[in-house]
Structure formats: C-alpha cells, structure tokens
C-alpha cells in the first residue's frame, strides 16, 4: 500500500470511529511543573483542538508527544459525559474493559479492569490486579476500592500495554492514572447538584482557599444516594417460610435490602500546596471515602440435574461416595434427594449423615436440624422448596432473593509530594503515601428464598509506599532522563464466608497476607537530531510475599460423606476410616490435628519474585505535528496462592507463579489542518505467558498458571474540530486475544459441556470483545445574551465477549449499542449551568459480570444499569 493510500485509509477510518474525549476541553494542569506555553490555551480560543498535558513518562508533556498509546480525559469532558467513576471510562477508551464489580463481590466499588485482553476479575487478597490504578502517583494495590469516584480530577490517563518500566508492579496490561486538581491561587467555589432516576441525589463541591501567596489549599466533598434498580419480590409459595433464615449460618454480616444496585457514598479530599517560587514545592493530600454501593445479582440458570459423586447407587463400601460420578448427585441434586426421599431410600445410599444435621460439634451455634424426608414425612407444614429453575425470573430488575445484600467500604489515605529543583536541569521528586481500607460485603447469589449460594467477606488492608524520582535533561535538552527507586509494603486479611446447599458446605476462610517490594527503574529519551528519538528503559523488581490460609468447612461434609460421623451430625476425626485401617482425619488428608475441619495447610507460606522489565523505543518526527513510533517492552504480574478451597490440601498450599507479557507496538500521532484534526493510531502484538486463570474446581474458584495467549490488535483515535463550536471525538478498537496453549488439567476441568464452551486453544480470552467503536459529537451554540447551549451525544458499540474463563453460555456478554446524551445551558458569566441528560437511552441490557458454580447448582450474573435520566445544576463562583 502506498503512502497516500495508507493516509487515506487512516483518515477515513478515523472519521467513522468513536470519541476519545481526550482533547475537547481546556488543558489540565500537570502534576509537576510544565512550561505554560506547552498548554497553548489560545488554540482553543482560535477554534482549534486544545492540548492536554500528561505525566505518563513522569514529566509533563503534551499527550501528542508521548510514544505510548494513551486515552486522556479532562475534567470537563468527564463531567459532560456523566462519567463519575473509573468503570464508566470503559465505553470511551478503545480496547479497554472496566466493570464495576467482580463475580460474587457484591460491591460496585470493586474494579474488574482489562486493557488489551490482560487484567483480573477477582477481589481476593491473594490475587493482584493486572492493570495498575494510580491516584496522584500512588499505587492502589487492591481491586477493592479501585473503582474510584472521579471527584475533582484534573485528568485521567489510560495507558495501554505493559507499563512496568516507569509504573512498576502489576501493570502488565496497562495503567490508569488519576490526577486530582491542585488548589487555585484565588478563592473559588465550584460544585453541582444532580437529581435523577431511582431517587438519585448527588451533591459535590470544591473550595479553593489561598492562605498566603505561597500556601494554597482546597477542600472537596461528594455525597451520592440512589435506590437500587433490582427489586426483591416475595416468592409465592408458603414453603419459602420453612427455609432457615440466612442468619442461621456463619457470615460476615446479615444486612439485607429490598433493592439491589443502590448507592450511598460520600467522599472527602483535602490538598495543601506550598510553592514560593523557589527550588522546593510541597503538596500534602488526604482523602476519605465511604462507599456503600451494592451490585445487583440475578439467577440465570440452575444445574440440579447434573450427576455427581454423592449418594450414588454404586458407592464405595461404608461411604456415600460414588467414584464413577454417574449415579449420585452434586450439591443441588443431593439437597433435592434428601428432602424428597424416605428414610429407607436415604439409608440405602448411606446418605443419612449427608441429609442429617447441618454443622458439627465444632460450631454448635450454627447446627441446624435435618431436612431429610421433609417432603415425604406426612406433615405438609414442614415441606421444603426444592432447588430448580423456578427462581429464574428472566427479568434483570426482579429477584426472589431474601439473603444478605450489602457493602460497607471505608478507605482513606495520606500522601506527601516533594519537588526539589537541584538545578535548572535536574530535579528530585519524592512521593510518600499511606493508605488503608476496611470492607464488609454480602451477596445472595442464588436469587431465591433458599440458602444455596450465600457469600460474605471482610477485608482489612494497609499499604505504605515511597518513591524517589531523579528527573533531568542534558545536551541542550536533547536528552531527558528519569531514574528512580520504589518501596512498597502492604499487609492485611480477607475472611470468606460461603454457604452452599442449605448448609451442605459451609466455608469459613480467614486469610493473612504480607508483601514487601522494592524496585529500581530508569528511562532515557534521546533525540540526537530533530528527525529521530530513542527510548531505553528498564525496571528491576524484587518482591517477597507471605501468606497463611485458614480455610475450614464447618459442616464436615467429607467426614459425613465417608461415614465418619454419627446421626447427630458430630464428626469422628479419630474414628476408623472405612477404606483403610487409619483414622478418618488421616484418610481424608485433613492437615491440622488441632482443627479437624480445617482444609487449608497450616503455617506461613513464602514466595519470592524477581523481575527485570525492559523497554526499547524509536520515534520519527517527520514534522513538528507528526510522530511515528515503535516500541518493545515487557511486563509482569506477581504470583501467589489459591485460597478458596473446600477439600483438604494435606501438606501442600497450592500456589501459582507470575504472569509475563512481551509487547511490540507501532503507532502514529498527528495534529493536522491547523490544529483542526488530530489522528492517532497504534497496532500491537503481545505474547502472554503463564496466565493466572480462574477455573472452577467443584465449588472452588481455583487460580493456576493454566495457559498462554497471543494478543493482536489495533486502535484508532480521532478529534476533529471542522467548524467553530463543533467537536467530533471518535475511536475504533479491534483485538484478537486467544489461547495458544492450555494446561492439561485446565483443559480437563474447563472443557466444553452443556453449560460452557470451555477453556480451549484458539478461543477467546475473557472480558475482551473483538470490536469497540465510539462516536461522540459535541456542539456548542453561542446565544445572543453571551450564554451558550451545549448538545452532546455518545454512541458506543461493543461486540460480544465472554465474562468468564470457561465461557459459560448464560454469562456471555451480548453485543451492545449504548447511547448517552445531554443538553446544557451555560449562563453568560459562567457562574452557573443546567444540564439535562440520559444514559443508556435505548435501555440495552447485558451482563457485566457473573459466575457459574455447577457443583453448587447455580449460574448467576450482574446486569448493567437500565435507562436513566438526570438533571444537574452546576455553579462556579
């Protein structure tokens, strides 16, 4: 293809692509000092496209001069498009998938982030994210709380591809950098009040308080309440009253709600900045947030008819275990068998203990009477509801759930940023930060009046980080460099509580984790002549992790399965194992003599990781407004341990190793037609090794290095200002992310079946749609009184994608066309504005998350929010 043909193709494709929102508003002030001329505010006044200054390479630069694929969004652009959280960036950034919530997390404050096919869809403490989230340069280590409210931000930068050299740990897929606004030099009050669907009420405000000429401060707050969109309705069968309350089982909490998907959040942020024009600048920041946003869960399907190993007709002698897995049941089927069978039928399958008292002598406060033969004992007053598809409503806004539904997250942090100009060409930057989070959440995943899949969690975490950066320039500004050192430490706990099948399995899983990490990094950008630039960088990381898992199964199911219990539900760990002349606890491989129901290996587990992530890049600058670049880089994500287990692990704590990615990228950034048109494009290829896949093994979501993948794609982004007042933003993303190998064990567990397409070579990675297209026209009409009216629309098309590793059919995310829009009036002096808008105007519904627990009998998921309207009053004084 010739040069002119390639240019024509790029231009044509970009004009039909979607908005990046990157350059349609006034430039944001960088986190570190930058020349005022670099922002060129006059460009916007002249009708051109205003620049955005970013700090993606640790120094302030025009986004068009950075040889990285970046989607950058200013505060005004985010507000105009009703983007209030990190997850809402998903629709306007190509090859990016961000969801508010992960399977069974029960909270919209948890972020499932994927960039170019790489990420993580879990909240467990032992699993690190694959996309790094940074708040004013501070890494947020947990996916819990990572779906930050974008309160009083200056800009958000979405960096695609491995960013290990400058950003560090767990940025194997990319990084999202949130930069908040610095205090102003004059007293100023800004804010807005919003009302809308589901009794939405949101109030936000920010005040700049200059204390002296050198000392400035700001204080920002946000409050948001909104009712849930999913309504719980009673199940019209009196037998629902005979199920025990969800409060009869061990849990992190017992709060419940009539509606799911509600919000009750508030945020507070303060900043203090000292700058007297000398060599030293100091910024102190603090933030506190309380997020009670819950996710909405729908039961999608049931699997009670699948045969299994429990209570078969061909059991091993003295047990209720069928080794063939063909004549017995899984947990849902076992429950149905117990309530619908006579005592004689139960005894014939050695299932008396399985159908008997729930719980053991080790947790007497949670022991419950037997439900065996409840529906055939001649007493209809105690009949139980069976488990089957009668609880599937088929309506994403209705559920028969009665169990816990809540999320209480408290998070806060303090940071200090010191900038010290050692000379005109060299500066030192220090970022010191401490953060904490405390989380308690619960979810009724079965969507029924029964206790078939009830989950709750507590998490407590703290982290400390210290980063030093030495930034400089030399050789008449032809050489720019950054050298740095980083230290990170975190510790905390996660406690899981899960009830399966009316207490057939009762998981109580305390976990403790500690991490120490340090790294050294550097990058040199050298432009020997105007035409050519060269980038060399690397980061060495050393990390040590400690983990202790305490998972236990409070019903002692395996003891009862193998005849190691009495009729009262008491297990006999030291009794004879029916299959060998050894005690039951030994025969079943329970690892802790002091706790017979503990399934996780006692003791502290330790792992060490070292990694070197290099980067090499070349740039060509044929003109001042065009840059062509190519790069090769590596990234990695740390390993850990699998924790969610319901079977004994003996003396081995199952672990997994780090992921690694190697990426080649080529791109072009251009600003054309007297700053009326901006076209950016990038193509990439990534070799993705040792993927940490989440595979369901029985009732246990298990992490293992179970596959490799090849990821290839491209993205185009456009901003056009063809006439004064009109801006067209557009983007187009395509990605092909497929497995090139799958471990034998994973292929066996995650193979195709009637519910799932399977985890197979050649098939797609989860959370990675092939296509995403976005188009966002914005027109500002000037009025005769000096005011203006702004018309804005957003359209995003996303092709289908799988929401889980095993490609469960009921969890497939269908193709979607999402349309948002708004109309705003701005009064002449800019002191106030009124906006009326709507999101998801076509009311397109699709699943954003979900899980399939075939052994437990349930497939469940979370839908996106329905059509909603809002009205906002903004003020600025």
UniProtKB/TrEMBL annotation:
Coiled-coil region: none
Any one GO biological process: iron ion transport
Entry keyword set: Cell outer membrane, Ion transport, Iron, Iron transport, Membrane, Receptor, Signal, TonB box, Transmembrane, Transmembrane beta strand, Transport
PROSITE patterns per the UniProt record, alphabetical: TONB_DEPENDENT_REC_3
GO cellular component entries: cell outer membrane
Positions of the TonB-dependent receptor plug domain: 63-175
Entry annotated with the keyword Zinc: no
Organism of derivation: Sphingomonas psychrotolerans
Annotated localization: Cell outer membrane
Domain TonB-dependent receptor-like beta-barrel: 373-841
Family indicated by similarity: Belongs to the TonB-dependent receptor family.
Classification via SUPFAM superfamilies: Porins (SSF56935)
PANTHER family xref list: FERRICHROME IRON RECEPTOR-RELATED, TONB-DEPENDENT OUTER MEMBRANE RECEPTOR
Name of the featured protein: TonB-dependent receptor
InterPro entries: Beta-barrel_TonB, Beta-barrel_TonB_sf, Plug_dom, TonB-dep_rcpt-like
Membrane topology: Multi-pass membrane protein
Domain of life (superkingdom): Bacteria
Signal peptide positions on this chain: 1-22
């Amino acid at each position: 293809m010739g040069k002119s043909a390639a240019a024509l193709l790029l231009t044509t494709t970009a004009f039909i692509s979607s908005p990046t929102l990157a350059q349609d508003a006034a430039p944001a002030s960088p986190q570190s000092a930058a020349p005022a001329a670099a922002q060129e505010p006059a460009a916007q006044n002249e009708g051109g496209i205003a620049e955005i200054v970013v700090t993606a390479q640790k120094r302030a630069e025009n986004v068009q001069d950075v040889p990285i694929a970046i989607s950058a969004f200013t505060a005004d652009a985010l507000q105009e498009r009703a983007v209030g959280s990190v997850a809402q960036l998903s629709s306007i950034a190509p090859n990016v998938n961000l969801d508010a919530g992960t399977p069974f997390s029960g909270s919209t404050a948890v972020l499932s982030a994927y960039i170019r096919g790489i990420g993580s869809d879990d909240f467990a403490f032992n699993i690190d994210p694959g996309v790094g989230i940074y708040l004013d340069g501070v890494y947020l280590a947990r996916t819990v709380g990572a779906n930050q409210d974008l309160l009083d931000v200056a800009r958000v930068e979405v960096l695609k591809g491995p960013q290990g050299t400058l950003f560090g740990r767990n940025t194997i897929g990319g990084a999202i950098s949130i930069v908040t606004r610095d205090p102003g030099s004059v007293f100023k009050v800004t804010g807005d009040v919003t009302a809308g669907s589901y009794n939405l009420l949101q109030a936000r405000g920010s005040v700049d308080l200059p204390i002296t000429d050198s000392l400035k401060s700001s204080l920002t707050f946000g409050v948001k309440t909104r009712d849930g969109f999913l309504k719980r309705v009673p199940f019209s069968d009196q037998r629902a009253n005979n199920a025990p309350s969800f409060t009869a089982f061990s849990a992190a909490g017992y709060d419940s709600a009539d509606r799911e998907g509600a919000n009750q959040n508030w945020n507070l942020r303060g900043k203090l900045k000292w700058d007297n024009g000398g060599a030293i600048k100091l910024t102190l920041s603090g933030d506190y947030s309380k997020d009670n946003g819950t996710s909405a869960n729908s039961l999608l399907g049931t699997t009670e008819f699948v045969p299994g190993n429990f209570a078969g007709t061909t059991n091993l002698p003295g047990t209720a275990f069928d080794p063939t897995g063909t004549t017995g049941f899984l947990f849902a089927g076992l429950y149905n068998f117990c309530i619908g069978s006579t005592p004689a039928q139960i005894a014939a399958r050695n299932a008396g203990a399985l159908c008997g008292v729930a719980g053991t002598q080790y947790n007497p406060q949670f022991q419950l009477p037997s439900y065996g033969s409840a529906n055939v004992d001649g007493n209809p007053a105690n009949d139980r509801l069976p488990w089957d598809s009668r609880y599937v409503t088929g309506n994403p806004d209705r559920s028969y759930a009665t169990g816990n539904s809540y999320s209480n997250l408290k998070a806060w942090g303090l940071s200090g940023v010191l900038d010290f100009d050692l000379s005109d060409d060299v500066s030192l930057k220090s970022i010191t930060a401490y953060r904490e989070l405390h989380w308690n959440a619960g979810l009724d995943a079965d969507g029924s009046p029964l206790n078939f899949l009830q989950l709750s969690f507590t998490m407590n975490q703290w982290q400390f980080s210290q980063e030093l950066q030495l930034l400089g320039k030399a050789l008449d500004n032809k050489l720019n460099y950054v050298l740095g050192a980083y230290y990170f430490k975190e510790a905390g706990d996660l406690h899981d509580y899960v009830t399966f099948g009316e207490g057939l399995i009762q998981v109580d899983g305390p976990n403790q984790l500690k991490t120490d990490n340090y790294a050294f990094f550097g990058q040199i950008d050298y432009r020997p002549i105007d035409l050519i630039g060269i980038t060399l960088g690397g980061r060495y990381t050393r990390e040590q992790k400690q983990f202790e898992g305490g998972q236990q199964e409070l019903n002692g199911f395996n003891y009862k399965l193998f005849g190691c219990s009495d009729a009262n539900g008491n297990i006999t760990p030291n009794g004879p194992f029916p299959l060998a002349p050894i005690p039951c606890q030994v025969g079943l491989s329970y690892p802790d003599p002091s706790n017979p129901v503990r399934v996780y290996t006692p003791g502290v587990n330790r792992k060490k990781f070292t990694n070197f992530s290099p980067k090499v890049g070349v740039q060509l600058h044929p003109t001042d407004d065009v840059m062509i670049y190519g790069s090769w880089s590596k990234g990695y994500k740390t390993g850990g341990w699998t924790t969610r287990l319901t079977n004994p692990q003996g003396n081995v704590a199952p672990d997994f190793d780090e992921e690694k990615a190697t990426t080649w990228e080529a791109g072009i950034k251009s600003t054309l037609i007297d700053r009326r048109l901006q076209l950016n494009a990038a193509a990439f290829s990534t070799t993705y090794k040792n993927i940490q896949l989440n595979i369901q093994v029985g009732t246990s979501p298990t992490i293992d290095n179970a596959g490799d993948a090849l990821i290839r794609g491209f993205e185009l982004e456009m901003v056009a200002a063809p006439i004064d007042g009109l801006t067209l933003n557009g983007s187009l993303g395509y990605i092909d992310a497929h497995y090139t190998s799958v471990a034998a064990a994973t292929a066996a567990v995650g193979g195709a079946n009637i519910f799932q397409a399977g985890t197979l070579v050649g098939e797609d990675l989860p959370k990675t749609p092939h296509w995403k297209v976005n188009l966002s026209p914005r027109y500002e009409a000037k009025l005769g009184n000096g005011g203006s009216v702004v018309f804005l629309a957003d359209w995003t098309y996303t092709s289908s994608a799988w929401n889980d590793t095993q490609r469960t059919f009921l969890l497939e995310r269908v193709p979607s066309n999402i349309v948002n829009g708004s109309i705003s009036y701005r009064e002449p002096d800019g002191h106030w504005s009124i906006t009326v808008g709507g999101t998801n105007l076509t009311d397109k519904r699709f699943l954003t998350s979900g899980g399939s627990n075939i052994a437990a009998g349930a497939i469940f998921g979370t839908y996106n929010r329905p059509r909603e309207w809002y009205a906002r009053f903004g003020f600025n004084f």
